[in-house]
Amino acid sequence: MGRKAKVEFDERPPDGFDPSNPYGDPVAMLDYREHLVREKWIQIETAKIIRERLRWCYRIEGVNHLQKCRHLVQEYLDATRGVGWGKDARPPELHGPKKESD
């Protein structure tokens, strides 16, 4: 028996959940809620990993960290935008910094 080359997870939301009638099937509603929580935790942990890489880059690069770690800063900001509890009800464009009006 050999090992699988890659582990594959089912990342789709559960079947049978109707957003227009969420309480129609309580089991599907709970499965969907667990799916949302799982996806939120994945986003949070990804941001933590990027933050640790950014800390390491700051320490290693010293005075040149502004130029050398810029890509990690942008990646961290993108990873943290819209991540957190209680931000699911707002549209994604409201999660980031305020945009200047022209």
From TrEMBL:
Keywords: Electron transport, Membrane, Mitochondrion, Mitochondrion inner membrane, Respiratory chain, Transport. Residues 1-24, 83-102 are annotated as: Disordered. The keyword Ribonucleoprotein does not apply. The keyword Membrane applies. Residues 1-15, 87-102 have a biased composition (Basic and acidic residues). InterPro entries: NDUFB10. GO terms for cellular component: mitochondrial inner membrane. It is found in: Mitochondrion inner membrane. It is a peripheral membrane protein. It comes from the Eukaryota. This is NADH dehydrogenase [ubiquinone] 1 beta subcomplex subunit 10-B-like. It comes from Phoenix dactylifera (Date palm). The gene is LOC120110794.
